[in-house]
Structure formats: structure tokens, C-alpha cells
Amino acid sequence: MKIVLGDIAYARSGDKGLDSNVGVIFKTAKDYNWALDILTAEVVKKYFGNIVKGDVIRYELPNLNALNFILLDSLGGGGSQTLINDAQGKTYGQAILMMELEK
Fold it and tell me: Which of 37, 53, 73, 82 gives the lowest tally of CB atoms within 10 Å of its CB?
């Protein structure tokens, strides 16, 4: 059965320099524990495709039922670095909530 991540989690994201972060906070401990095996750094990197030029690093926050992903080199030069590319990571949280996963 496929689910949309936004049905079982909330997200918050931001940017700093060339990188962005996406925090995924699960509504239940059961869903968090399930996600530990499913929502890997590799899965997140693949989902964001060519947006993420560098690695994705995952941090586990079990006391919050949350995972935090650092998307290295994901802002095309950094937020507000050029007039042509005004990339920001604020929308990445909303984007990850649209991810479909097999549950």
C-alpha cells in the first residue's frame, strides 16, 4: 500500500549557504520507527533528483520522532547569492511531504 508522507508526518525546512535541511516529524512513534528503515538518505537524495548536487546526511532524533536531512549543495549557489538563481530551501519541507512510499 502506498502512502503520502504528509499523511503521517509534518516537515520543516530551511537553508544556509549552499545547503538546506529538511526535518520530518512523525505523528506517532510507530511511524517514526517504520521510517527508520524506509526513509534513508539515499531515498531522499533520489527523490530530490538533480536538485541535490552533494550528499544527503540523515540525523535521527528519536526523542522527537523526527529525522533531519542535510541536503548538501542543494541551493545552486546559495540563497540570494545571485539575481538569476534565488534558491531557498524553505519549500523543500512541503516537497518531501508529497513523497509516496510503500507501507
Answer: 37
Each residue's pLDDT tens digit, 1-27: 999 999 999 999 998 888 999 999 999
Q: Using CA atoms, how far apart are residues 32 and 61, in angstroms rounded to an integer?
A: 10
| Distance between CA atoms of residues 100 and 82, nearest Å | 33
d(CA 38, CA 36): 6
Cα(91)–Cα(103) distance, integer angstroms: 25
Q: What's the CA gap between 66 and 1, in Å, rounded?
A: 22
